[in-house]
Amino acid sequence: MPRRRLYVEVESRTDAEGRITPLVVVWRDGVRYHIDRVTEARKAYSPRTCSAGLRYSVCVGGTQTYLFYEGPRWFVEAKVPPASPDAL
């Protein structure tokens, strides 16, 4: 399924060394997803969305996913639903 870059609100903590730790992702409808843990943070390219940034591997509700920091904004690789044949 194709993906697109979807910018989201993220609550994070920055330590004295400047390291950013994402804590909560807030979806467009206001639903809050608490990040259980961050397993990795590294510079990476997202071929799905043709963009790069600091990629966080995070666990949310038992599911591993990626969260990208493209300073100063955060994004996720959102699924693009297939177009309905009736939409033509």
| SSE run | EEEEEEE
The amount of beta strand, in percent, is over 45%
Given the helix and strand composition, which structural class is it? mainly beta
User: What integer is the average pLDDT?
Assistant: 90
Radius of gyration: 14 Å
User: Low-confidence runs (pLDDT<50, min 5 residues)?
Assistant: none
Largest sheet, order of strands side by side?
3-2-1-7-6-5-4
Question: How many runs of DSSP E, i.e. beta strands?
Answer: 7
Count of helical regions: 0
Helix content: under 10%
Q: Which geometry do the CA atoms define?
A: globular
- The termini sit apart by 20 Å
| Biggest β-sheet strands, sense, barrel | 7 strands, antiparallel
